[in-house]
Structure formats: C-alpha cells, structure tokens
Amino acid sequence: MSQLRIYDEVHPDAELSLHREHTAIARELDKVGIRFEQWEASQPIAPGASQDEVIAAYKTDIDRLMGETGYQAVDVISLTPDHPDRAVLRQKFLNEHTHSEDEVRFFVAGAGQFTLHINDKIYDVLCETGDLIGVPDGTRHWFDMSESPYFVAIRFFTNKEGWVANFTGDDIAKRFPRMQPYSPAHA
Q1: What does the alpha-carbon distance between residue 12 and residue 187 come to, in Å, rounded to a whole number?
Q2: Most C-beta atoms within 10 A of its C-beta, which of 22, 59, 69, 89?
Q3: What CATH number does residue 71 fall under?
Q4: How confident is the model over 158-184, as a mean pLDDT?
Q5: pLDDT in tens, 52-99
Q6: Contact, 168 vs 84, CB < 8 A?
Q7: pLDDT at 160
Q8: How many domains does the chain have?
Q9: pLDDT at residue 185 above 60?
Q10: CA distances from 92 to 50, 65, 126 (A)
C-alpha cells in the first residue's frame, strides 16, 4: 500500500502525519508542488515484458504527461533482488541530492521510496505499483530501493544526459527511515 509519512526535519523519530489513501497522498504532495498520480495499464503486462510492451500498456498516460510537461523520452528500468549490482545502485542515490531536471517515475511493478526535503519538512513517499511521482528539478530528495530491490519503472526525461545527481553534502538522509525489503507478493 502506498503511503506518505511527513516529519519535521529535526525530528526523524516522530511522524507529524501518515497518509495511506491515494487521494490524501496526492493532495498533501500537491501542496508542495509534487505530482502524484495513479495509472492503470490499458492491456495486461506479462512478467518479463519488453520495454516496448510496457510502454505500450501505458501509452495514453505517457502521451498525456509528455504533452503537458515537455518530457522528450521515456525508458523502462527493472531491478530484482538478485541483480549483481544492486548494492552499488542503491547506494548511488541514498544521500540528499537535487537534479537539474524533473525526476519522474511510474512504478509498473514493485516499489521504491522517495524522500523529499521541502522547506522544514520531510515527505517520505512509498511508491508502489500504479504510482507516478514527479519530483521537480531542484527539489532536495533521496531515493531508496531497499537492500532487496524489486521494481519495474518507467522513467521520463527532458534530456537523459542532463539527469545527474548534485549532492547537497547534508547527511539528513541518514537520520530518516530507509525502505524495508519489498515482496512481490504484495503487488
């Protein structure tokens, strides 16, 4: 189940609020400029489907979003618990950083945890199957896929080469909860 936990930036041990209903999550995130939507496939997607098959299943929503925002490209990324580079890939984005373009992910399967540092609040968003999150450029955040990652996600880009993490140097991410392993049985 998708969820949003909100904290004061100096109190990682005390949630200010918890939301598990999609419209409540979207409403709270919209207040701080974060897009959060739920999509459904227009056709069944078999396990192991190709990138083209995955994109075709969400073509209507992809085209709508690209038309609204100007994103130029999409691709599909998939990570499983047996991926040989999972620890290195996880570590890559565990510290607070920003990007010079939006970070937009749609979770076709599995889950990932985006944690956003906006003003003096921390917005910890567990995204699961069917969730799209849009993090605007310049937003301080970090991403966790757990020690045992499982997800298939569509990524949106304005410029693939421009999507680079600019680390803030703040160790705040170490003080807040990490993602627990996700089981495909929950999907």
Answers
A1: 28
A2: 22
A3: 2.60.120.10
A4: 86
A5: 999 999 999 999 999 999 999 999 999 999 999 999 999 999 999 999
A6: no
A7: 66
A8: 1
A9: no
A10: 25, 27, 18
Question: Coil, strand, or helix at residue 174?
Answer: helix
Residue 21 lies inside a defined structural domain of this protein: no
Residue 47's pLDDT band (cuts 50, 70, 90) = confident
150 CB contacts (<8 Å, ≥6 apart)?
Answer: 79, 80, 81, 109, 110, 111, 182, 183, 184
Nearest to 31 by CA among 66, 4, 62: 4
Residue 51 belongs to a domain: yes
| Angle made by CA atoms 108, 114, 115, in degrees to the nearest 5 | 165
pTM of the model: 0.94
In a domain, 20, yes or no: no
Distance CA 41, CA 62 (A): 11
Which has more pLDDT, 185 or 157?
157
> What span, in angstroms and rounded, lies between the C-alpha atoms of 25 and 55?
25
